[in-house]
Amino acid sequence: MGSKGKAFLVLASIAVVVFILVYAGINFTSNLGKSQSEVSSEDAAKKLSKMYGKISVTTAEPIKGQIDLDPVSVADSLPDISKHPVTVENTTDSFVEIFSSPEKAGTGIDGWLNEVAEEFNKSNTVVNGKPVSVKIRNVASGTAKDYIISGKYVPDAYTPSNELWGEMVKESGVSIQLVSKRLVGNVTGVVTKKDKYDAIIQKYGSLNIKTLTDAIAANELSMGYTDPFASSTGLNFLVTALRTFDSDDMLGEKAVQEFERFQANVPFIASTTIQMRDAAKSGKLDAFVLEYQTSVNAADLKTGYVFTPFGVRHDSPLYAVGDVPEEKVVIIKKFAEFVEQEKYQKLAEEKGFNGLNDYEPEMGLDAVESSILPSAQKLWKEKKDGSKPVAAVFVADVSGSMDGEPINRLKESLITGQKYLGSDNSIGFVSYSDKVSIKLPIGKYDTNQQSMFVGAINSLQAGGGTATFDGIVVAMKMLQDEIAQNPDVKPIIFVLSDGETNKGHSLEDIRGLIETFKIPVYTIGYNANIKALQSISSINEAASINADTDDVVYKISQLLNVQM
User: Domains of the chain, with CATH numbers?
Assistant: First the structure.
């Protein structure tokens, strides 16, 4: 593929990753005091107005576009399975393909199952007179569940982090057979700073989900957790918390009220434990959720933190999926037996697994009906933000380097993404090259606004220089004006840029404003000054990534199903 083709694919994902960034951190707005560059709110407002006045800003005439109200199906939105890497290839014609969660099918310390699978493939195991092997594909537990339930791609076997995902597959009506309850031992837990842990122990007597959520509801603790649609740890935390709030009715009024009280003081929700781990490095969270295997392998968590397990165990169950031929079921069982050998369990210990084998959850799977799990996710989506809607401004680079296929793919991605924007939120849209154009003022995302959003996307044309920070200034001004009218909205900015900033204001010009207004600025760049973009996002603990993926539609649907 030529360079232009690669740019075509990469830039197609820009819009998606923007939405992923919403999914990863839309709730992370910290109030951490002023830095040296932060200015008072009054001074910031004056400075913002002054900077805005120096920028060449036009407001485009709204253009209505044709909207498509048909929802995007999960199967249609999922990328081709080749997007997810095969980490161990089969070595025989008779084999089973296994979807495995990343903490055991990754690389290095996270590659335990890969190493065991390679040994299995060398073991000359025979079934029905034929040599057999396994093929391992690294797919996150929640994403794997979507492939299986949608029928987009169904493996022979599935080993998620915990049994909750298996229960959800079963609830969907897909045939699934539990072959092994445990391939390797692991638990999930809350990692708490030692001083905060001691304070909770002193006040509440112990640290568990009940005392933890009470402390958070009382604003005594700053905690982050992971998205229960995507993360095994997040799903486990949600279910455990709801059961703690009301063991008799996890979805009842009492549980909902307690959840809203707790959630009101949660500053950060990450999409994955990896993102949670990266965010935790800032030291601004008092507590966060992680699997034990991840925490023990993190050097900077070995001192000054306490790990407290919760919920169901994460023992990597193994399932046969769908109408698997009996010969393949036998291969799956043979592999499960192979994994259980002492030498491979010792290898697991070396990689951080099997560390808390004595932990028994207060809540067993028998306490959670499988039908509850999708309902719990739906409840989380509806109640996680309380009564505060989001006000978001998307800031798109339309400089000359975006001309041609890249801008066309960007339009296509945004058009797809708009289907997932919730009507309770408010959306604005800005484009920039060497000048800035307000393509769509902030407005409630009703059918009319949706139509104009589509029209604004279709009107994009590339050309000119790249004044990224001018675009951010305009977005901040739009949001501050919106907040003046609607003080309860949660503001956020998304910057899509593929070029080096070479016009207008600099990062240092606007850093103090970003700090003072505490608006998270999520950035995504391709062939950009990535360090500058990272500097913007790090100011208020947002995220910055370099776009390099092409699973556009699924990431949009996954993100916006949760956040918008």
Answer: 3-26+387-563 (3.40.50.410), 90-186+317-355 (3.40.190.10), 188-310+375-383 (3.40.190.10)
